[in-house]
């Protein structure tokens, strides 16, 4: 458990992704939760609901229990509680579940329709989901990008393992990178996002 009472998974990439998602959500002004995001048709609240539900889905794939009660792909946009109070239990559940998966374990279950994945890919997929939706919320609400080049490089290694089979289902068509793009831009474009997106 982290020093602030938050669960950690022991999977460094996931723990960093959870950190940036928490920091981004904490930085949203109360009046900005209805703002549009790079996720077409979803506002910031809906992206938060989707991201939280996905983390619970990863937890449930490992533990066999406690999956999301609402469809993460049909978020209501209605939150009855403080966004951080909503998010924390979802991230903690994912961290607790992944903390039970040792680094020596070869494969792990995920909610993705790809079957069991190499464990580093499965934990990385959960990280990718959390970190990229942190970016979505950040740019929607006027915050700096929470993605660093180092984090983006690590996430790109995961993305190349899972995105193409899910392209039509969960990711927009890739955007061709340019030689001037940094690692964050390369990752975002691979996931079908415009690094210069603005509401």
TrEMBL record:
Entry-linked InterPro entries: CHP03086, DinB/YfiT-like, Maleyloyr_isom, MDMPI_metal-binding
Organism: Asanoa siamensis
Domain Mycothiol-dependent maleylpyruvate isomerase metal-binding: 15-138
Residue stretches spanning the membrane: none
Xref: Gene3D superfamilies: dinb family like domain (1.20.120.450)
Name of the molecule in the record: Mycothiol-dependent maleylpyruvate isomerase metal-binding domain-containing protein
SUPFAM superfamilies: DinB/YfiT-like putative metalloenzymes
């Amino acid at each position: 458990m982290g020093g602030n009472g938050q669960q950690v998974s022991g999977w460094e990439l996931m723990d960093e992704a959870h950190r940036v998602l928490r920091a981004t959500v904490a930085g949203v002004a109360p009046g900005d939760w209805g703002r549009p995001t790079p996720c077409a048709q979803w506002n910031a609240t809906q992206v938060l609901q989707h991201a939280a539900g996905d983390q619970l889905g990863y937890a449930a794939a490992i533990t066999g229990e406690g999956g999301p009660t609402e469809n993460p792909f049909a978020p209501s946009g209605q939150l009855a509680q403080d966004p951080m109070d909503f998010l924390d239990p979802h991230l903690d559940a994912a961290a607790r579940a992944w903390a039970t998966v040792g680094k020596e374990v070869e494969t792990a279950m995920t909610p993705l329709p790809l079957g069991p994945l190499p464990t580093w890919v499965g934990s990385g997929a959960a990280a990718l989901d959390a970190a990229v939706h942190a970016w979505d919320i950040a740019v929607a609400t006027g915050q700096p990008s929470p993605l660093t080049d180092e984090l983006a490089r690590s996430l790109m290694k995961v993305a190349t393992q899972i995105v193409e089979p899910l392209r039509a289902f969960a990711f927009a068509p890739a955007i061709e990178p340019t030689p001037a793009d940094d690692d964050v831009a390369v990752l975002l474009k691979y996931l079908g996002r415009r690094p210069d997106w603005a509401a």
